[in-house]
Amino acid sequence: MALTEVFTGKNGTLTLASEDTPEGADAKAVVDTYAIQTVGRLTDVAVKVDTALKEFYEVGRRHPVSLSPGDIAISGTVGRAYVNGALLMLLQGRGSSPTAFAEPYVQPSFTITLRLADPARPSNSLTLEIGGVKFENWRFTLPEDEFVIENLCFRALTIRAIDRDGGAGAAGGGEAAPTAVAFATE
């Protein structure tokens, strides 16, 4: 059964996790040092998946007769009302360190988990796991009369959606099992 919950930003959390790679080790160092496993003070988080579909048109037809899948690009943006250098270090890694590091050095890579859950129905949730994330750019502005916000754009390698429907009569402890789609195999 598909979840029918309606969420707002107050129902969401964004967490960072390291990956088992050299880039992930540098991300883990930053995440642990700044204690930003759960990133706070976020605003305007956006995730975009573009499949670059290509239409095929036959001569004499106005509508396409085929849609062919293209390259998949996963990207997004994050705004944060707090600046402490942690997200800039996740962009440049050792290049943002107060002490100089000899190049080359890796750019940190990590996993972003966006979880939406309603406290009134804690057994129902939607989680997006975005893997192989690297920040693409970082922007900081110091406005005269507004909040200071740092903005980042990211790109990623993978994305998974995990729906958990605990049902009305869910008993027992723990989290509900993810909803699984049974795709046909040949």
What does this structure look like?
With 186 residues, the protein is mainly beta. 11% of the residues lie in helices and 41% in strands. It has helices at 22-34, 86-92, and strands at residues 12-18, 38-39, 42-50, 54-56, 66-68, 73-80, 110-118, 121-141, 149-156, 158-164. β8 and β9 form a beta hairpin. It is globular and about 60 Å long. The mean pLDDT is 86.
Low-confidence stretches: none
Shape: globular
How many helices does DSSP assign?
2
Intertermini distance: 25 Å
Mean pLDDT: 86
Could you say which structural class the secondary elements and strand pairing correspond to? mainly beta
Largest sheet: 8 strands, antiparallel
Run of helices and strands:
EHEEEEEHEEEE
User: How many strand segments?
Assistant: 10
Strand content: 35-45%
Helix content: 10-25%
Radius of gyration: 20 Å
Topology:
Layout: E1 12-18, H1 22-34, E2 38-39, E3 42-50, E4 54-56, E5 66-68, E6 73-80, H2 86-92, E7 110-118, E8 121-141, E9 149-156, E10 158-164
Write a brief caption for the model.
This protein is mainly beta and 186 residues long. The protein has helices at residues 22-34, 86-92; strands at residues 12-18, 38-39, 42-50, 54-56, 66-68, 73-80, 110-118, 121-141, 149-156, 158-164. The radius of gyration is 20 Å and the shape is globular.
